[in-house]
## 1
Amino acid sequence: MIPVTKPFLPPIEEYQQYLKDIWSRNWLTNNGPLVNELELKLKDYLSVKHLLFVTNGTIAIQLAIKALGLKGKILTTPFSYVATTSSIVWEGCEPVFVDIDPASCNIDPNKIEAAITSDTVAILATHVYGNPCDVEAIDAIAARRNLKVIYDGAHAFGVTYKGKSIFEYGDISTCSFHATKLFHTVEGGCVVTRDPELLKKIAYLRNFGHDGPDRFAELGINGKNSEFHAAMGLVNLKYVDRIIETRKNLSQHYDRFLDTFQGVKPALTEGTEYNYAYYPVLFHSEQLLLRVVESLNQNWIHPRRYFFPSLEDLPYVHKDFRCAVSDAVSRRALCLPLYDTLTNEEIDMIFRLILRVQNN
């Protein structure tokens, strides 16, 4: 079987060495030494000022909303994973969808201003597939209209824009370290900010609000992560450059077929150093996509309709209007298999099957 992705696992002996150290210390969670070490190494690798390791990428978004004290309407994209929207609703805010740019699949900054009302408090934009949003336009709108900005960078580990970490934009950026991501800690995520006061607040929020053993500075939750997850991250971080390079080479092998493919890839934002987190394609029609998926599945190949459906279809959001571009893109978008151990021969087979379907 060829799945859409496979988690990278390092040599087990390297992970076991960390486990031995955890056993010897008997310190399993509550901001242990490995969590602190991982945070320091991630700050260095990603070239960011402040970073906190948290339970997962969804909690990261919820902590960001809470830390910024947001109450009201948050402009966001309908073309993202459900956690982007569900986190807004979970925190008692109202998502307002702004349609996407058909080329990049990211939120369209040209449509943001028209969606702003007196109840709008923030913009929550996703770097879809790790492709940077138009951060300069979004940040300029936010500054002009006094809005906060959160970037959902779940897919964007290691991505830079004009030589700068993509996580250095906005008030807060988040990332996911889920097992399916190119860098993972099995489960995990992080919150990044340039503001030391925000960092301090988020540190309280992720640990029940504790300010000492018997003092509480904030209303908090349990957003911490464990030594076992940090250990996986520390081992995997040593391999991430090689993983990205391998995925780049595989993506370039896929690219050889695009001249004969009835569809396109999303356009990469100019100035981006990409991480090759996914290999998305946009078919010319949903009918062709469905026929291709059926053929691939029959041959034990499992791509993913990522993202589908467009998030206006969620049962717990207002359905005042449709985002026509997002709806159309979501029906035609498919992520093809991409992972560290995929081979060029398997890519050849995948695209032979795609071309066989589209040419019949």
## 2
Amino acid sequence: MNLNQIPRIHYSESGNFFLLAGPCAIEGEEMALKIAERVKSVTDELEIPYVFKGSFKKANRSRIDSFTGIGDEKALKILRKVGDTFDIPVVTDIHTEDDAHRAAEFVDVLQIPAFLVRQTDLVVAAARTGKVVNLKKGQFMSPEAMKHAVKKVHDSGNEKALITDRGTMFGYQDMIVDFRGIPIMQQYAPTVLDVTHSLQQPNQSSGVTGGKPELIETIAKAGIAVGVDGIFLETHHDPSIAKSDGANMLKLDYLRNLLTKLVAIRKTINAF
């Protein structure tokens, strides 16, 4: 797969990494449009191919009273409006086969959550929509095992697969990124580093996931230095009031500075 296979992608020849970024969950139309506008302004300036990310619903929650969404159809329509307003591709996660068929009408990229990447029926359903399929590496899986997930997409008649590494479980409540896995997975598909989810601290006794956002720049820089194809991160105007995963999000005000540094590192790497 090459970047030009994602509809409405811009700057694919810039030599930069591409970016999947946005809020964890769609909380409303105004917030989604404001975040997309800010991120697109920065990525246009730096010539970074940009895909807006937002979950239309959250199914993997620790507690039954956790925020799961504003309504599936409402959120999906917001995602489509973001894509149409800014002429950018959009990615959202899916959790069931029905989700695949429904979300495919609104977005350009279907994302398989890490917990579900071994679910054959789900992966095949996503692949058969013809959309780009972003396969999150399971926290419990080796990099080498992801070749089988990619093969499921290809064997379903779809060559448009991405792999996203979101860290590997380290004990019960921590994640770690094994950067040795990036070049391994790049043998199978373009590979993205999910910076913010790699800094989660899951399984907290409170039932609310923690995180280490102060290390976002460290992990992102390392990923670019290793040669990752894309960067994934979740961002919000005020992570402290985000309805999902605020503990590991990047504050939107910090995005320009971070991406400017990453572009400079990528230019240096490209020179070798």
